[in-house]
User: Fold Mab-21 like 2 from Chelonoidis abingdonii.
Amino acid sequence: MIAAQAKLVYQLNKYYTERCQARKAAIAKSIREVCKVVSDVLKEVEVQEPRFISSLSEIDARYEGLEVISPTEFEVVLYLNQMGVFNFVDDGSLPGCAVLKLSDGRKRSMSLWVEFITASGYLSARKIRSRFQTLVAQAVDKCSYRDVVKMIADTSEVKLRIRERYVVQITPAFKCTGIWPRSAAQWPMPHIPWPGPNRVAEVKAEGFNLLSKECYSLTGKQSSAESDAWVLQFGEAENRLLMGGCRNKCLSVLKTLRDRHLELPGQPLNNYHMKTLLLYECEKHPRETDWDEACLGDRLNGILLQLISCLQCRRCPHYFLPNLDLFQGKPHSALESAAKQTWRLAREILTNPKSLDKL
Assistant:
């Protein structure tokens, strides 16, 4: 048994060195290319409208505020200033979303974002995005990369196509620190020892973001109140939880397998599903020793089996917001074919670790 485990870990480490590192290097090169163009567009936006200040910056060879959705798809979060006069209201009526409401009607004129406040006192995510979209469209025409960048039409999101190869979504957002959403209040579960009180305190202090984008749970039925809502996002908190042991290596292997074998019609699976299931696996295996290098094979198998189960049940709850289903709106047939394909992958890796050489 131990020999089989060791063989799998050896093959996974080889896979990590050969495939995952190559994926990382290729993505890093794409990111540099994309960020040059995006920075130029955002500089142009800032000239027209100083309230939208680019927060895209390179720190230790990583771009702050950039998420990799897939090797050709990225999201850049543009942090806005001065949320001050608004209260954060999250009553659970919109899974995965919250609203920003004026704390006092008399403060309306004091807000930096006065013209985006609705009659009932909400700061409208949609109105801000719509204004930003207009500015980006103008900036694309003026910027020095105008020959290689185009706005993607037919969407309320701000999306750019760069060199006909990459898609970048630019999302206005507010950073919320020092508060924790009510809809995530059940975390951490009292009976689960991971991640421990100190790490929990760190994660909650890290806070979350409020993004101006289409919400999973709202697509297709947006009333005006709902389109004013902001989407909750916990990227930094999640990254902090995944520090230590072989967690990040495991995530790298999962992302690489997804990119190479689970990029399917209907796009049932993205890297965020992989990250979410990895967080659940951390709860199931709370001891740090469960995440030693020698356990990499076991953890990976556990996550792939959990993924199959989620795909078959057609439900994947968000880690912090369990009422939000990350499979909502995905075609059932796409989830079914992803389940079959994941099962083939898992069986292959488990019964014949050497197959990783070909995967």
